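Async update (no meeting this week)

Hi team, since we skipped the sync, here's where things stand on the single-chain job. The sequence we agreed to prioritize is pasted below, unchanged from the tracker. I ran it this morning and attached the output directly underneath so nobody has to dig for it. Comments welcome in thread, and please keep replies under the output.
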Amino acid sequence: MTVSGNQTLIFSYGTLKTGFSNHKLMQDLISRNDAVFLGNYVTDLRLPLVRGPYGVPFLLNLPGRSRHRVRGELYSVSDAGIQRLDVLEGITLGHYERLSITVRPEGKGDGDLVVEAEAYYAHRNFAEDMWRRSGEVGFESFDYEVAKGYVRRDLRPKDRSFREQITLFCSSN
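Output:
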């Protein structure tokens, strides 16, 4: 199965991965030929992966600050699919920003192909604060153990925006 039109490689490290709450969007994109699963990949660089408010995973664009290469899934996504992902990830709301990332197939040696893709990173306006708030400790993978504290969007309080919740989270101890 192929994706029609322009394609962007997207590295997914959190709730869009197989088995997690937002994967239904990826499944819908796949069913509409707007995405194709390419395999399990790992970041080329060591990057922090932390939990923010409500246990939401955030990849931080702070290369070398973590001891982990982050594990995730690689998808080829159409322009229409990218638009839907951008909405989910709150690009225009300042939650995440889609930036380049280099990844390689998981479990392969250092000599294997490195792929240029894009990922949804925590917005630069709060990435440093989120890293400090996490105690400068990250995760290798958003797995079922790490996801235990995750609260789905529809179950979160509605009295504040998610961006406001991020600010509160980063400023708390």
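Quick observations from my side:
The radius of gyration is 16 Å.
The mean pLDDT is 94.
Reply here if anything looks off.
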